[in-house]
Prior knowledge:
Elements: H1 3-12, E1 17-18, H2 20-29, E2 37-40, H3 43-53, E3 57-63, E4 75-79, H4 82-92, E5 98-105, E6 110-119, E7 123-130, H5 132-138, E8 141-145, H6 150-158, H7 177-193, E9 198-208, E10 213-215, E11 219-222
Antiparallel strand pairs: 1-11, 2-5, 3-4, 3-5, 6-7, 6-9, 7-8, 9-10, 9-11
Helix pairs in contact: 3-4, 6-7
Bound molecules: adenosine-5'-diphosphate and magnesium ion.
Amino acid sequence: MNDRVNEILKSSMEAGWVLEPLAKELLGIYGLTTTKFAWAKTPGEAQAAAQKIGFPLVVKVVSHQVLHKSDVGGVVVGVKDSAQLDAVFFRLSELPGFEGVLLDEMAAGAEVILGSKQDPQFGPVVLIGIGGTSVEIYKDVSIRMAPLSAAEALQALHALKGRKLLEGYRGRTPVNMDHLTDLIARFSQMVFELADHIESIDLNPVLCGAEKAVIADARIMIKR
Ligand code: ADP
Ligand code: MG
């Protein structure tokens, strides 16, 4: 295992899960595409990072006490300038356990959910679903053993009822399936390699556009 991966997992052991900026860094090490992001601990750092990433931005709370960020108003989408960034930073800084904010590049596209868990029978498995509501309401999920190839990822996507949402349904641009299936294959490889250290992963959403698929949120639960 890469030293930095080891360091990130170790530093997350006590809390039991990996903060989003560290989770995205870890995914990047495994060749997975995430949104461009920065972790800023002061308003000054936030302003400097915003210049690099560019407005509009998504700003999110970073706190080990906040696992589900939007439940506590910890995600602000479409922050458009420096003044708004200052105001959002101040408001988020009042949330419990505040450790800074994550500035996130705004992404768009069809929402895919990728997950992993340890199955008692099959070991590390990957879960693939489309669109927030279709997964929750219709349990429209494909489950495959890790690792899987890009071709197997494509088959798993085709097995979903909601696949039309990726194929350019109702005049939308079709998503780049090569990029998405490559992302899923790399993800499954990571899940396989880290099976002894990670309990589960939730990448929700992965935003899939005509050019690429980017991971916009990541929750990694550590095995203790
Ligand atoms: P949580 O799941 O912890 O509540 P998320 O990071 O998933 O927080 O953010 C909540 C929602 O905000 C996402 O489901 C998505 O709709 C939107 N969002 C988050 N990050 C981005 C981004 N980089 N670009 C566009 N939309 C985003
Ligand atoms: Mg999320």
